[in-house]
Amino acid sequence: MFINTKFYVITVASIFIALGIGIYVGFMLDAQEILIHQKQDIVASLEERFDYIRAENQKMKLKIDKLEKQISNYEEFSNTVLPAIIRNKLNGIKVTIIETSDDYIYSGLVQTLEKSGAKVVSTITFKDSFINKLENYTNNTDNNLLNNFKTKSEKKDVKKIIIEELMKELTEDQSKQLINSLVENDFIDIFGNYKTGADYVIITGGYIEADNYINLKNYIKEIINYCKKNDIPVIGVEKENVKRSYISVYKEERIPSIDNVDSVIGKASLILTMTGKPGNYGIKNTADTLMPSYIY
């Protein structure tokens, strides 16, 4: 019988194609099943990991809640015992507070000092434009406010003469001519009975903008130098989170400092330091130790 070669070739080719398709389909079915199992394993592993993380987060939340409660208790305890620690420690001391910037408010400082028996006779605040205005005034030869001081300075540093006169008026019972002029010309704000001189000076610092930060250091140093020359105790303080700190200036000038005066620990440190325990206290890198030792 005659066999058509073309038909034979097509038949054989069809068989092999069908066989190949079958093998491919079978392989794909097996691969799909394997893939499904792998996905299921991954999902199960992720779920297990998620459950573990969720459990750990819950443990951490409970721990944080416990620590926050402890901190709250410590703060309540500290606020309760602080008045007992500072009571009558500064009886009779007259204090002037010099706020070198109005970027940060130190209103709680007065209350702490008064609880210790001290009397805050004045609080003076250098306004933001203090340095710029003073520079303009000192460069102006036809200014009535500063003519007297230019005569006194004999062409020396007028700014130094002004700071010295300002400190003299703040710490002595005398005429307050310069203070009144600075207030009238919007250089400073002042509160309290500043007609009474102070026998202790507290400098509060911390600056936000960098414009006058460096220049203001020179004014702070002049204040400190005046206090040292006249045997007036002086201390520099600031809050925990000031943007630009002056603690390094206080350390350089070798006066006591507190870098966390807005905290209970800082308030206690301030009063104890003023009783005669000088040092650089607080929580920042510039601090030597947390607070002064306390003996009841």
TrEMBL record:
Coiled coil: is it a keyword of this entry? yes
Q: Which residues form a coiled coil?
A: 29-77
Superkingdom of source: Bacteria
Q: Which GO terms describe its cellular component?
A: membrane
The alphabetical list of record keywords is: Coiled coil, Membrane, Transmembrane, Transmembrane helix
> Which GO terms fall under biological process for this protein?
copper ion homeostasis
Residues spanning the membrane: 7-29
The cross-references to InterPro entries, in alphabetical order and at most eight, read: MctB
Family matches, as Pfam families: MctB
Q: What is this protein called?
A: Copper transporter
- The record lists the organism as Thermohalobacter berrensis
